[in-house]
Amino acid sequence: MSSTDTAAYALRLGDDALVLAQRLCAWVTRAPTIEEDLALSNIALDLIGHARTLLAHSGALDGTGRTEDQLAYLRTEREFRNALLLELPNGDFAVTLARQLAYSLYARLLYGELAASADEVLAGFAVRAAKEVEYHAMHATGWTVRLARGTAESRRRMRAGLETVWPYTGELFEEDALTRRLAAAGTGVNPAGIRESWEKAVTAVLADAELAVPAPSWQASGGREGLHTEAFGALVAELQSVHRQFPGGTW
Amino acid sequence: MTAPAPLPPEEVLARVSTVPDPELPMVTLADLGVVRAVERAADGALEVVITPTFLGCPAMPAIERALREVLAACGHPQGRVRQVLAPAWTSDWISAEGRRKLAGHGIVPPGPASAPLPVRLGLGLPCPHCGSVATWPQSPFGATRCQAVLVCTACQETFAHLKAM
To answer: Record's PANTHER family (chain A) (predicted)?
Structure first.
């Protein structure tokens, strides 16, 4: 297994966590209740923790010796490798929760398998991250059912949220040359291999919510090659603004 | 002033074990199970081996700084702090003493990390204010990443619970 491959893989997973954390941070002081403010910011903090661990590992392995901060704050838009789902604008609370549902159920399965990785750091990371993500899945599952079975308006919004994010879920399970090499070496997880379990988990939640699983007619792709949506440039600019205005600043 | 004579690893371990956690200062890093060992590295320097409670825990830089100060005070100015992720930290590593101290400060300690989910979430844990067991998990997300919020249906007060995980 080449360390360059492992570095590229850690960067993908780390960028997923980092970009979603940045999106969730925008809910601080805007969530419907104080508990929800705490919940979304705690989830964002967990994800920043995941990103820090994964980006630090990537930078140590890719031969450049870049730190987690250099990777987060000094790459350009096209150098990020997150799936497009994670960069989608927050929309209303239901859109954010639909994305949380899709991602947290995926991450729980992914990290459950990654815990057996031949890479010691990835394995140790995944054991711990799986436990944290379990709470995120519980949070998203609870809200999906609550909104779907709440009022006519909350149900309409939850359904619309799911319809908005669903075309972006397929990218999470895309295989390519990198994931095939990593899976063959036992270092990474074959994303296509967890799709069926994910669909089962999602179907169970949506059955409880009395909602149909969306069946989008198209699927977004490109994030893993650095081809992002229009909204991503503004996200990166905001994420990096302090670091770029005050290079090397410490507090 | 002369540098202090370097203390042996077991004495350094005893010293670093007393360092308080920056976010939960009523317990020590040893109580929490964060300090795993003090070992001599291949280059002869002493290393304090720690496992973070939560990944990328924001308290880690403060913890590492405090541990390096203890190393220096023990005569090991070249001593280092090394983070290991495997085996992953679990709340089962919190000592009996640590649990007693947490409870004494109104933070209900976690049950077994392998318990079924409703038990892990704290369903029915006695309220630290009134002792009632008619308590309910209000939110698994609290003041820090490691705490959840429970609510007592008898006295209507909320209280903190260290997550079992």
So the answer is: 1,2-PHENYLACETYL-COA EPOXIDASE, SUBUNIT C, PHENYLACETIC ACID DEGRADATION PROTEIN PAA
